[in-house]
Specification:
Four Helix Bundle (Hemerythrin (Met), subunit A), four-stranded antiparallel β-sheet, 458 residues, globular, alpha/beta, Rossmann fold
């Protein structure tokens, strides 16, 4: 398997620290709002990464954190006039609800920043004692000038970093790029006791501590969106290596932006749609198909016509499954022959090449084309098996039954419309016949001033 490693800017052969085991940490949400559909991209992609590693027989430990203390949460608590803890609880609950709706599997661990404050204080103390961090008026900063490796992930040079869009302006700092490890508490803000007074940890410190606590000093993969490379992931590396002289993670993976009209979709630009908004119009698999049909490192433009195409593609898969009568053959015993394994090998090869999900999806299409020619039900089993790796066809029995139910509802509505037409033509004989025939199969009609209603007679 080859993975593009942001740290080296090239594809590298993936070699886990422990053979057969993969440890992954992916930055999770700051729970101050509903997450937007751009945030769904890393959630969906790294869900697939975990699935594929497990499909290959690895034991995966997957950590996705919850940032439940941050400037954004404090601002939201002021806006909604409720405590920060309630803001965090409200949007953490919403995050898990939306993940379930998007059919994103939970991680093995979802640590909350507030559960590790003492560990964060210990890390900051260690950095201060090593003279790589310094305190000014209750705030503690990391001195980037005293860490020789700063910039190794992002490629940025310290001399070029000046206060600006992604570098906080602060006259207390020795260098504009020095970042906050501990923030002195303002009146009314949540705070914890520390050697530097009441305050709270910085965001960059939170992820270092939680990842190392749950995965060890060095783990295999650290992931997130491309916008996290600098300063967040750069600052994580600096703290981890300054405190322990070890890599935090051996492979750094970053997915590209979701753009809208050429700009990154983000809350700060106010050009976003929440996952909840999109799920009102499109199902989870259509959204998943939309993201996975493009390579994860490439930017992808939000385009409603493409999502409609994605919805149709998913529907085509389900049409094949219905045509094959999958529910009646799902328990049949079978063995793959070489002609079947050819597709499996192509799928694995695509995924082994830096998780080329677009190519992997094309293999699924090839399988359906071959099934249409041969009607060999083994191809249907292969379609389900490989589709599951990408997160498709989950809860398939429920979905196929629901689709059948949806079609039945549409047929009843269609028959009622014919009856309405007969009534308009005063063809009472046909209108009554439709009512009576529907009643025989348990469908009861009720004519009201608002129209004809129907129900199932039990």
């Amino acid at each position: 398997m080859n993975i593009y490693n942001t740290l080296s800017n090239r594809k590298e052969e993936f070699k886990p620290i422990t053979q057969g085991k993969v440890k992954m940490y992916v930055c999770g949400p700051t729970v101050y709002n509903y997450f937007h559909i751009g945030n769904a991209r890393p959630l969906i992609f790294f869900d697939v990464v975990k699935n594929f590693f497990e499909y290959l027989g690895n034991e995966v430990t997957f950590v996705r954190n919850i940032t439940d203390i941050d400037d954004k949460l404090i601002q939201r608590s002021i806006e909604e006039n409720i405590p920060v803890s309630e803001i965090a609880a409200k949007y953490t609950k919403a995050f898990f609800e939306d993940c379930r709706a998007l059919e994103i599997s939970p991680a093995d661990h979802h640590p909350k920043a507030t559960e590790y404050i003492n560990d964060m204080i210990d890390l900051i103390k260690e950095l201060v004692e090593k003279n790589i961090a310094y305190e000014v008026n209750g705030d503690v900063y990391f001195s980037v000038s005293d860490f020789p490796g700063y910039g190794k992930l992002s490629g940025k040079k310290i001399d070029d970093l000046k206060a600006g869009a992604r570098v906080e302006a602060n006259k207390q700092k020795k260098h504009p790029a020095d970042f906050t490890l501990w923030k002195k508490a303002k009146s009314g803000e949540p705070n914890w006791s520390s050697p530097w007074g009441e305050g709270r940890p910085g965001w960059h410190t939170e992820c270092v501590v939680m990842s190392r606590k749950l995965l060890g000093k060095t783990f295999d993969i650290h992931g997130g969106g491309i916008d996290l490379i600098f300063p967040h992931h750069e600052n994580e590396i600096a703290q981890a290596e300054a405190s322990g002289n070890k890599n935090l993670a051996n492979y750094w993976m970053h997915n590209g932006y979701l753009n809208i009209e050429g700009e990154k979709m983000s809350k700060s630009l106010n050009n976003f749609f929440t996952a909840r908004d999109i799920l009102k119009k499109y199902d989870a698999e259509s959204i998943r198909f939309f993201f996975l049909s493009k390579h994860y490192r490439s930017p992808i433009d939000f385009n409603e016509s493409i999502i409609i195409e994605s919805k149709q593609a998913v529907k085509n898969f389900y049409n094949i499954l219905k045509e094959s009568d999958y529910l009646s053959i799902k328990d049949n015993k079978f063995e793959y022959s070489d002609v079947h394994l050819k597709y499996k090998d192509e799928f694995i090869s695509a995924m082994n090449n830096d998780f080329n999900t677009a190519k992997a999806i094309s293999v699924l299409f090839d399988i359906t084309k071959t099934y249409n020619k041969t009607k060999d039900p083994i191809y249907i089993h292969l379609l389900i098996e490989l589709g599951n790796v990408l997160g498709f066809f989950m809860n398939i029995e429920e979905k196929l039954n629901n689709e059948i139910s949806d079609i039945s509802n549409e047929l009843i509505d269609l028959i009622i419309n014919y009856r309405i037409s007969f009534k308009k033509e005063k063809n009472w004989k046909m209108a009554d016949a439709i009512r009576n025939d529907l009643k025989k199969i348990g469908v009861v009609l009720k004519d009201t001033p608002e129209g004809t209603e129907w129900s199932i007679e039990k």
